[in-house]
């Protein structure tokens, strides 16, 4: 569903204001998972209630890619995202998970966003030693 809306700026945070009629037309419930297209860039997100608004967050990374700023008006397209949210563990993390059934069970219960946070931290390591420490920390967090 395409619509024109304002990009809300609140402090350092920005979000796409979603009219209630648009959210309702998606038939995805109160906080539907969506595929967003803004300024030619597409990503997966979720409609969330923030105070008096229904919003889709626009991260600093996406603002950098699209050139979009707060308080601007843009055409946005939202479609209901019915695909499973899958986060693949990198090989070294997967090996550590496979070696620890408790950690693996905890990993399998994590929300995709929490899995992504672990994967991003591990993949952001520059040195092999740092990466190893981050894998170990993830396993520790999952087992305590």
TrEMBL record:
For this protein, the record's Pfam families field holds: DUF1905, OmdA
Q: Which domain of life is it from?
A: Bacteria
Q: What is this protein called?
A: DUF1905 domain-containing protein
What organism does the UniProt record list as the source?
Devosia insulae DS-56
Taxonomy of the source species:
Bacteria, Pseudomonadati, Pseudomonadota, Alphaproteobacteria, Hyphomicrobiales
């Amino acid at each position: 569903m395409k619509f024109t809306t304002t990009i809300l700026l609140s402090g350092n945070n920005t979000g796409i204001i979603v009219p209630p009629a648009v959210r309702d037309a998606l038939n995805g419930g109160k906080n539907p998972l969506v595929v967003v297209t803004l300024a030619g860039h597409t990503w997966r997100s979720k409609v969330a209630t923030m105070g008096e608004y229904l919003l889709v967050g626009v991260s600093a990374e996406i603002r950098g890619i699209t050139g979009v700023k707060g308080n601007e008006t843009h055409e946005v397209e939202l479609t209901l995202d019915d695909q499973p949210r899958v986060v693949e563990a990198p090989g070294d993390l997967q090996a550590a998970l496979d070696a620890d059934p408790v950690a693996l069970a905890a990993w399998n219960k994590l929300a995709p966003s929490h899995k992504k946070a672990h994967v991003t931290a591990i993949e952001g390591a520059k040195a092999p030693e740092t990466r190893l420490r981050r894998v170990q920390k993830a396993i520790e967090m999952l087992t305590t």
